[in-house]
Description:
Order of helices and strands of chain A: HHHEEEEHEH
Number of helices of chain A: 5
Oligomer: homodimer
Structural class of chain A: alpha+beta
Strand content of chain A: 15-25%
Number of strands of chain A: 5
Largest sheet of chain A: 3 strands, mixed
Amino acid sequence: MSKSLTKNQTLVLDTLTSTSKPLTAYSLLDRLKEHGFKAPPQIYRALEKLLALGLIHKLESINSFVACQHSDCAHQIAGFAICDGCDQVSEIIDDDLESQIRSVAKTAGLVPKKSTMEIHGLCSSCADNVV
Amino acid sequence: MSKSLTKNQTLVLDTLTSTSKPLTAYSLLDRLKEHGFKAPPQIYRALEKLLALGLIHKLESINSFVACQHSDCAHQIAGFAICDGCDQVSEIIDDDLESQIRSVAKTAGLVPKKSTMEIHGLCSSCADNVV
DNA sequence: AGATGTATGTTATAACATAACACTTTCAGT
DNA sequence: ACTGAAAGTGTTATGTTATAACATACATCT
């Protein structure tokens, strides 16, 4: 059995999982104050661990965190499609994308360790509403 | 001739161009204090304009800015290979990458507006030195 | 029990970014 | 050249995101 999560880690993960939208560290802190959280390091330490376990992802372009939408992403390369209208995020895992990233890294002579790909735009329903 | 840049914009762009490594807004501010810059908004406003003109890029994963390496990046879609050892950055523009991004966006039902792709790792010389 | 490794609570501060206001410069249209 | 709109600047203050540092607690192994 894999290592179980601590109370704080579980609370943070559950909050992200049940929200389905990306949350910032400080909005997590707000939501978890009723559970005794008081200061940013409590949140950031839980996030750090969850990231290392591949259970969540950080969206660098919006300084926010989302639960992984797949079972276990620890070593996968994912792309994210982020709707700027409703904040909904889709996580895309795709062999072509992964090989594309490796190929770009190779072009640059880089041994890749970690990558982020984030696409911003409007989802179909938000695009319809703007007109 | 395209619109010319203001003094502040030129100073910021020249600093980025002559450095060839990514700089944060605050390190730009430090370097430009001798030219009369005194407060963050002066830097951020210049950066904002240069971004809009496609003359620089923001690397979201390290909160830093680099000059565009493709003299006039009308391309909105670029990938960046970032060496965590020496901070050197390569900007990659590649038709396959671009179509890959469009395809990922389409999978997610997103009309893409802007995308970021940043790959972290070690360049060949840094990888050799670690051993 | 003692040693080790990890997690936690807490205070303080560092690092990144923008709001708001007053003033100046630029430049197209009359 | 005048003028009004748009863009740029200087400045102060503040908001937002993230980590350093230190003390304490708790679990696990020998």
